[in-house]
Amino acid sequence: MSKVLYIKANSKPDGVSRTFQISDSFVEQYKKHHPEDNVVVLDLYKLGIHFLEGEDLEYHNPAPGVGKDHPVLKYAYQFLEADKYVFAEPLWNLSIPAILKAYIDYICVSGITFHYTAEGPAGLCNGKKAINITTRGGNYSSAIAKEYELGDKYLRTILGFMGVLDFTTIAAEQLDVVGVDVEEIVAKEIEEAKKIAETF
């Protein structure tokens, strides 16, 4: 049995968010094909993830004896103990929503999800896999705009830093372009998401 973290980062509610239309379809299909797996939903806005304070940073090099239920470290331990990750977020201002970055700051902890060696930093989340499901107003896969896309690129990089190298992206693009059939684009990505979910 695998443990899956479904990490949702969009202030729009279910049913309204186009991101969640795709990601929820992915997760529903995943459950059908992996009924024995445990899917844990982390809706970051509902959880009220906040930015780390100065005193919180003291726990980024946790002392022995600090438990897994500690409010600062619990997300890092939960991330480490999971086998698969499903991220769902829109591209906002060329990057990820700030609340998702806040979550990353909780899980990227030296001694838990990565550590420093004589050769430099090394991830401790090896052998795990992730998928990022994102929506974008424009076409950021084109040669001209690709360099401006810093959301999926950041997630792929920071997860790789923690050892997660099996990383897949589903991106629904041009959703804010005038004259584009948004429903058709979303429907197409939902079907793609369902196919990937079967073997994820």
Automatic annotation (TrEMBL):
All residue ranges annotated as the Flavodoxin-like fold domain in the record: 2-195
Molecular function terms from GO: electron transfer activity; FMN binding; oxidoreductase activity, acting on NAD(P)H as acceptor; oxidoreductase activity, acting on NAD(P)H, quinone or similar compound as acceptor
Domain of life: Bacteria
EC number: 1.6.5.-, 1.7.1.17
Known cofactor(s): FMN
Keyword NAD: yes
Record-given protein name: FMN dependent NADH:quinone oxidoreductase
Protein's organism: Lacrimispora algidixylanolytica
Highest classification ranks of the organism: Bacteria, Bacillati, Bacillota, Clostridia, Lachnospirales
